[in-house]
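Working notes for the structural subgroup meeting. M.R. asked for a predicted model of this chain before we commit to crystallization trials. I am recording the input and output together here so anyone reviewing the notebook later can reproduce the run.

Input as submitted:
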Amino acid sequence: SELDDMFVSKDTVVEIPDAFKYQVAAACQLENYDDPITVGHLESLKGIDGSLFLIMYETEQLDWLKYCKNLEYLTIVTTAEDTTMFKEIKELPNLKNIYISSENPLTFNKEDFKFIEKSKNLTELTLEGFYTEPGFIESLTNLKYLSIEVDDINPEIDYSKLTFLDELSFSVSGPYDIAVEFTTKDCNTLMNN
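Returned structure, recorded in token form:
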């Protein structure tokens, strides 16, 4: 339970899925990736040096991220078929920057990515390979930078409501992808606000 998690010793060993052990051990600056990873190690992840880069080839457990209370930078690349595993991430209170890339077209939605909404320090979001639930990105008003891939995916974003952004970036492969998604009216609205 959440109450039990509040009183967990820093020496408690955390079960990290095999798919992530090497990356997590490296981020925690452990000499051997087979060394036990503790709550204290995960709590020490902070700044660029303590960033996590996770590659998921299938659905993996992510509940251990709850101990990464100071994590600021997170990159997740996935080939999983759904996003329900992201529900396990309850909160990353100090997260500033997240990059999420999917090889399969998935939906970036409020239910599975609730932790994004709770991450009040999050100012930079990069999404590749995602449809978006209408209104979700527009509700993330703490963002200052948003980068989205618009190749063959319509992210369903009302760009005129992103006036809180300092920078909006598009990753495209074709010359007409942006014109289909981002209109002159959207551009004028953002530039004038």
